[in-house]
Amino acid sequence: MKGSLRTRLIAGALVWMTAVLVAVIALVVRLTRNHPELATRHATHIAMVILVGASVVAALFLLRNAFAPFRTLRAGLSAVREGRGQKIEGEYPSEVQPLVHDLNALLEDRERAVARALTTAGDLAHGLKTPLAVLAQEAEQAAAAGHDELAATLRQLVERMQRQVDYHLARARATATARAAPGMRCAVLPSVEALVRTMRRLHAERALAIEIDVSPAHEIRGRREDLDEMLGNLLDNACKWARSRVAVSSSVVDDRIFIAVDDDGPGLDPSMRAQVLQRGVRADQQVRGSGLGLAIVSDLAELYGGAVTLETSPLGGTRARLQLPHFLPIDERPRS
Questions:
Q1: Rounded CA gap, 158 and 143, in Å?
Q2: Which domains does the chain carry?
Q3: How confident is the model over 221-267, as pLDDT tens digits?
Q4: pTM value > 0.85
Q5: What is the longest distance spanned by two Cα atoms in the chain?
Q6: For residue 85, what is the DSSP state?
Q7: In a 3-state reduction of DSSP, which class is residue 222?
Q8: Which residues make beta-bridge pairs with 324?
Q9: Phi, psi (degrees; rounded to nearest 5) at 245
Q10: Regarding beta strands 307-312 and 256-263, do their DSSP bridges make them parallel or antiparallel, or are they unpaired?
């Protein structure tokens, strides 16, 4: 790693100031030799001090102006990273402007790549929606005609295909997002509140108590849709197995947000915890589903540089602990 630019500029300024000081001293010595009467005058000494002081002030002023474009550039990059801007704004010196143009071009290319990926994923979902709807209708017609076994098989296949489509679309969307401009951010609490309202409606007959302990200040670095996908699967799983109580909480450790989803259900055998995070594995083969829910959560979390783990819950059942990058403004991040 090369030395600091600041150090180089300061060193250059010191050399320049030393040269000025030497020149001033040489000038004063020569004057006093040619005009001895000046050596005893206070005005001469005062003038020399003023000249040296002016040189120091001028050097500091030049240093400050030399660093100003870099401070502006850093502020512009921070704005893009935090989602407050789409590109770096401002005018810069000719030495810095090409770098700004290249950075803005890179940001635009990434935005276009993400837009293309999301459009492709949306087109794929739309293209598969109609065939799946037709198959679901065929299952209903088979059931109405008394072909219960055929209808059950068709429903199972449709559900499995739908879950596979959801899995791969969610992964494609998250992959595109993870490579997008880094200003993506979303608050955890609105997502949790919306999902809890949905779960209360879906499980209204069981009167589950779903508690929320999430700070409004907690934000992740990512898209709301992906957070909904991850938390939706975890909450759905918790509500499915809970006896009467589910709890969602969040905490921050360093640059990570931990979101815990607890239930008071029968729990999960420790030997099964790693397996149920894999594609196609279910904790209970009698429960309907393709076994992709927790696998989606695991894959999406990994794409964001996070993880999901299963533990024993303080409520007695299972705790799903989701770890994701915590969004922090640049000026609030710990300095390395």
A1: 14
A2: 5-81 (no CATH), 184-336 (3.30.565.10)
A3: 888 888 998 999 999 989 999 999 999 999 999 889 999 999 999 98
A4: no
A5: 124
A6: -
A7: coil
A8: 257
A9: -145, 135
A10: unpaired
